[in-house]
Amino acid sequence: MGLEWEQLVVDAADPVALGRWWCEALGWTVVNDSPEEYEIRPRPDRLPGLLFGSAPDKKTVKNRLHLDFRPDDRDAEVERLLALGARHADVGQRGDEPWVVLADPEGNEFCVLGERSGG
Q1: How far apart are CA 88 and CA 86, in angstroms?
Q2: Is it the case that residue 103 has pLDDT exceeding 90?
Q3: How far is CA 115 from CA 30, 60, 69, 94, in A?
Q4: Where would one find the signal peptide in this protein (predicted)?
Q5: Domains within the chain, CATH numbers bracketed
Q6: Which candidate, 113, 108, 105, 78, places its Cα nearest to that of 91?
Q7: Nearest to 40 by CA among 60, 20, 55
Q8: What is the Cα–Cα distance from 75 to 60, expressed in whole angstroms?
Q9: Cβ-based neighbours of 87, under 8 Å, separated by 6 or more
């Protein structure tokens, strides 16, 4: 197949600030630090990346697309992300899920998953 996933584009009021936050949260590398399009990747030559683009409107509703992350230690990772500036987010979860819903500094929800069941 001739189709490769290049990046996920995230609208941001401040692409540089949000891109820097995600870069620190993920431990990724900056590959474009333009104020209009700030891009990070796991490594400069590894895809996909996250591209933060300028958008004047504020986020008002739950994201229709979000990222899920599976760390070695969910609770420790949640605490680390909260210390970086994430916050808990309510998207209607019941409270007994094996994941934690957080939001980045601009309110974009993402999940920190628990241990994978079944190995």
Answers
A1: 7
A2: yes
A3: 29, 31, 11, 18
A4: none
A5: 6-56 (3.30.720.120), 65-119 (3.10.180.10)
A6: 108
A7: 20
A8: 28
A9: 102, 103
Secondary structure string (H, E, C) spanning the chain? CCCCCCEEEEEECCHHHHHHHHHHHHCCEEEEECCCEEEEECCCCCCCEEEEEECCCCCCCCCCCCEEECCCCHHHHHHHHHHHCCEECCCCCCCCCCCEEEECCCCCEEEECCCCCCC
Q: CA 119 to CA 111: how far, in whole Å?
A: 20
pTM score, whole prediction: 0.90
111 close to 66: Cβ distance less than 8 angstroms: yes
- Residue 58's pLDDT is what? 83
Span 5-52, pLDDT tens digits? 999 999 999 999 999 999 999 999 999 999 999 999 999 999 999 999
- Cα 104 to the center of its chain, rounded Å: 7
